[in-house]
Amino acid sequence: DGGITQSPKYLFRKEGQNVTLSCEQNLNHDAMYWYRQDPGQGLRLIYYSQIVNDFQKGDIAEGYSVSREKKESFPLTVTSAQKNPTAFYLCASSFTANTEAFFGQGTRLTVV
Amino acid sequence: DAKTTQPNSMESNEEEPVHLPCNHSTISGTDYIHWYRQLPSQGPEYVIHGLTSNVNNRMASLAIAEDRKSSTLILHRATLRDAAVYYCILRLISNQFYFGTGTSLTVIP
Q1: d(Cα B94, Cα B96) in Å, to the nearest integer?
Q2: Which end of chain A, N or C, is less packed with Cβ atoms under 10 Å?
Q3: In whole angstroms, what is the distance from residue B30 CA to residue B2 CA?
């Protein structure tokens, strides 16, 4: 089945530790995205990538880093510089603006 | 940023039509209008999208104003499974897209 997979579903980390969230898609999409969602809020764009080896910052990139070494994969690292990392993280992928975007089921990160 | 404005919440009776409005006064000629919906603790699900003309699919209809500064998502017969947060999004030709705060739809049995 084609789709987009995020792992793990739940993640717990101690404050001050870096953590990497996985996002893999087998839809052959060029564009991939990372969003953060806080309780009762909409989605905010962290980073996006239109093509392999290229990515751009979104509205809230501070404290996060990404890589796009393969078309299928767009991992997000939450660094210790992120002041309030506890949130629900969503990954998405798409072809173009005229096609639907597919979202993963999210990773809920809790930093204690 | 491409911005959209939606009511925070709406209610509908089951099996009645629902019209979810969205304002996007800053839309440019190449921006696509997309709608997604999200259930709690899940990723958003695609509903429908369009550019200028009204669109229909098996889930819903999308009515786009002639000046494209507003649009309406129409669910023809609301079911309990349609209860969700509905997001109206502008997708730029560069493929960027941004979410607003969405409309939380409650369906009353």
Answers
A1: 6
A2: N
A3: 12
CA–CA dist B5, B24 (Å, integer) = 7
pLDDT tens for the 112 residues of chain A, in order: 679 999 999 999 999 899 999 999 999 999 999 999 998 888 999 999 999 999 999 999 999 999 999 999 999 999 998 989 999 999 999 998 789 999 999 999 999 8
Q: Which of B32, B43, B102 sits opposite A90 (nearest CB)?
A: B43
Three-state secondary structure along B37-104? Answer: EECCCCCCEEEEEECCCCEECCCCEEEECCCCCEEEEEECCCCHHHCEEEEEEEECCCCCEECCCCEE
Q: Do the chains contact at A103 and B94, CB–CB below 8 Å?
A: no
Contact residues on chain A for B98, CB-CB shorter than 8 A:
45, 59
